[in-house]
């Protein structure tokens, strides 16, 4: 185990879907292979996952980010797509289309549907989303404690221009913006319905407060990490935890690599840049949530400004091109958080 001034018994990660899941997979690989300073295979990882992408469709409760983390870490993910089940078939989707059931643009695979059936039945029987998630994880054994950010219904909606509407605007569910519109039209605003009334799920605040390290993975800063931090109490817990808080930039060389972080950042008036996202999260010493911010080596010129803003900052390769590369990112994040020179 590489030496470190940090001893990591517990790491808590605030995660979205694909970006977060890939990072956590690399982190776990790094823990197993001993490349993460101060940590080992015995280090416990808790993942607080975004649930603001969730929605009800065809009578089923679908939780894309929870499922992406669960399937990725449980080795059930379709690696090419990055979401959904491997070896998926689409008979139910085809049959629904034959009935003319809308929306036809949201594909639920046959294997995936089994997960949503279990979840929906348990919710309707009165179990909470936390309890359902724990039950689903008994099958998938993700190797982390997976917690939804809240058991309450919180849904991201996106305002887009619509010439046919009297207000000139229309609000669509996040899934319609992302899946049907492919984030191809500008997002004029992001509205997180239900957020102010939401309560953190059991264990979420303790996981942040009792951690030895809190990590913001390279997830979408607005509709993944932003919505988790927006659950009342979560931002305060991150601001006040005794653990160091480190983040990894989801923007590399001015691009979001995969996904839609650029559209979402633009909608909240944040420049699409690694330094700008670090500044958006802000240093805990000046009202923000971070102690340290890791950017890609292509963005190394942004390090001095981040340091001037009160953040510990460094530049390393941040492309998640496989478990070893991603484990190295996790190791660099830990070194930076600990203040060890890399
Ligand atoms: P989602 O919920 O499926 O959109 O996943 P997340 O919110 O967890 O992460 C999506 C974000 O991950 C994207 O918007 C990208 O900015 C970021 N991302 C994806 N691949 C990479 C990568 O290889 N390196 C880095 N640094 N960021 C990435
Ligand atoms: Ca998501």
From TrEMBL:
Its EC number is 2.7.8.28. GO terms for molecular function: LPPG:FO 2-phospho-L-lactate transferase activity; magnesium ion binding. Gene3D superfamilies: CofD-like domain (1.10.8.240), CofD-like domains (3.40.50.10680). InterPro entries: CofD, CofD-like_dom_sf, FbiA/CofD. It holds the Pfam family CofD. The keyword tRNA processing does not apply. Keywords: Magnesium, Transferase. PANTHER family: 2-PHOSPHO-L-LACTATE TRANSFERASE (PTHR43007:SF1). This is 2-phospho-L-lactate transferase. It comes from Nocardioides ganghwensis.
């Amino acid at each position: 185990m590489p030496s470190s001034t940090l001893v990591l018994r517990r790491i808590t990660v605030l995660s979205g879907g694909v970006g977060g899941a890939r990072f956590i997979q690399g982190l776990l690989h790094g823990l197993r292979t001993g490349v993460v300073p101060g940590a080992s295979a015995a280090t416990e990882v808790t993942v607080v996952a975004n649930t603001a992408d969730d929605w009800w469709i065809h009578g089923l409760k679908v939780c894309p980010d929870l499922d992406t983390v669960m399937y990725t870490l449980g080795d059930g993910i379709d690696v090419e797509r990055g979401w959904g089940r491997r070896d998926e078939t689409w008979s139910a989707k085809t049959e629904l289309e034959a009935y003319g059931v809308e929306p036809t643009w949201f594909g639920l695979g046959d294997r995936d549907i089994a997960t949503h059936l279990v979840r929906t039945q348990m919710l309707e029987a009165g179990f909470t989303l936390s309890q359902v998630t724990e039950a689903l994880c008994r099958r998938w054994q993700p190797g982390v404690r997976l917690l939804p950010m809240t058991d309450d219904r919180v849904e991201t909606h996106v305002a887009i221009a619509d010439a046919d509407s009297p207000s000139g605007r229309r609000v669509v569910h996040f899934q319609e913006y992302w899946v049907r519109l492919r984030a191809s039209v500008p997002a004029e605003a992001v509205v997180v319905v239900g957020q102010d009334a939401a309560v953190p799920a059991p264990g979420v605040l303790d996981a942040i407060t009792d951690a030895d390290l809190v990590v913001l993975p390279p997830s979408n800063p607005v509709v993944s990490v932003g919505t988790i931090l927006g659950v009342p109490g979560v931002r305060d817990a991150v601001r006040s935890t005794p653990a160091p808080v480190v983040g990894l930039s989801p923007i590399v060389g001015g691009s979001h690599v995969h996904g839609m972080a650029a559209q979402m950042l633009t909608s909240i008036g944040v420049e699409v840049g690694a330094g700008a996202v670090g500044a958006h999260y802000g240093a805990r010493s000046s009202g923000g949530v971070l102690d340290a911010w890791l950017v890609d080596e292509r963005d190394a010129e942004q390090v001095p400004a981040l340091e001037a803003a009160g953040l510990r900052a460094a530049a390393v390769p941040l492309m998640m091109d496989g478990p070893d590369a991603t484990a190295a990112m996790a190791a660099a994040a830990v070194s930076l958080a600990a203040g060890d020179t890399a």
